[in-house]
Amino acid sequence: MKAIKYLNKTVDLLLFAVLAVMALSMAVNVFCRSCLNFSISWADELSQSLLVWLTFLGAAVAVREHSHYSFNFLDQVFKGKARTGLALFNNLLVLFCAVYMLVDGVKITEGIANWLMPAMGISRAWIYGACPVGCAIMIIYCVADIINNIKLLKV
Length: 155
Description:
The protein is mostly helical. The chain has one domain. It has six helices and no strands. The protein has helices at about 1-35, 45-65, 70-75, 80-110, 125-130, 130-155. Helix 1 packs antiparallel against helix 2 and helix 2 packs parallel to helix 6. The two termini are about 20 Å apart. The model has no long low-confidence stretch (mean pLDDT about 95).
């Protein structure tokens, strides 16, 4: 699917950008603390916020790459359609959890929208929004896998 390939490239690019900005802000702040004897007030807050985004976008990539926790023993024991059925069950379980987290993540993000981060002066919703965004991407990847697994079971 062309849309999934585009999503893959977008998520990978976002992960790269988040990690690069996080590393740069931390490095600059360490330099300022060590060499210039002052600290950039917003750098730690930015790095912590980007770590949350890195976590949820990384979790989506783990869903895409089938890298989340699974029972490898069962995957090795089952063959053919039984293995595909196990993958389908696993996808449904991840889908259920991602939908649950998406719904609660939206509620929490909306609830703290008026809370400002002290150093950066932006809404905490920008940070908490990583959960719904990451979960929405996980759901897309799960649904694509479920469709593929159902096709394999029909063959």
